[in-house]
Amino acid sequence: MKKILAGVLSLVALTACGDSKNQNANNITSDAEQTMNNTSTIPVAKDSKVLIHTSEGDIEVLLYGDTPKHNANFLKLAKEGYYDGTLFHRVINEFMVQTGDPDSKGAPAGKALGQGGPGYQIDAEFVYPKYFHKKGALAAARTADQVNPERKSSGSQFYIVTGKVYSPEELTQMEMQMKQGAMQGVFYKLADERRTEIIKMQQEGDQAGLMKLQEELIALAEQQTPDVKFTEEQRNAYTTVGGTPFLDNQYTVFGEVTKGLDVVTKIEKAQTGAGDRPVTDIKILSVEVLD
Questions:
Q1: In the chain, what are the helix, strand and coil shares in percent, each to the nearest 5?
Q2: 81, 95, 143, 232: which could form a disulfide with 148 (CB 3.0–4.6 Å)?
């Protein structure tokens, strides 16, 4: 951990918010929504079922009642026909299939997609580790942490997890990496709180002071970062049906596929071009509310 954080105090002092466009290929991004969704008073809902009719077949999805804001928003958009005609605009094998961008309706080949939405975001509803990124999980896209530290969801874009199967050893290694990532986040937060002090030390050329402060912040970060461990249920799912464990507790999981996972797999395997968009358009025809 010390090697990872070595020398970062100067970066903390000199660097402002990161560029939201500089995304890892495995991030689930949606860049258009700017305002808050007015759903803060929605009570816990009952589970709901919807049937997503696509050009490749039907996908039945259960929407969780204990993610009520996402549940209510999805049902509202479905009933309005908002999703009708939207493309699966981003498809990555052994990762996920993404849709819900209204700008994708009738979009010509080559058009950049993934930034459209209804103009609002939804408060994050992490019910973790009860809900996690197993194969078939339904989750909300969002903008990156640099511009969205509260991890609010896109107002319309969502993805269905396909992922892959992991070995127990791979999951253990991933736990270590996730712990390091969490610790680094805590370190940067602590360093940012001491920004004025760091800048003063830099201006005075106080390298000894900077090194001492760095060691202090590393120790605090280690103390404040809890262990990252997958539950037995997660380990069982990720070593059998598969999923995308590295996304856990970062994006709101608000449902799961109950029928039609073969359709999701078919979409996942589609030939893609620039921006991971399928070469042949795959679209949502309509979304039917079943219950």
A1: 35, 20, 45
A2: 143
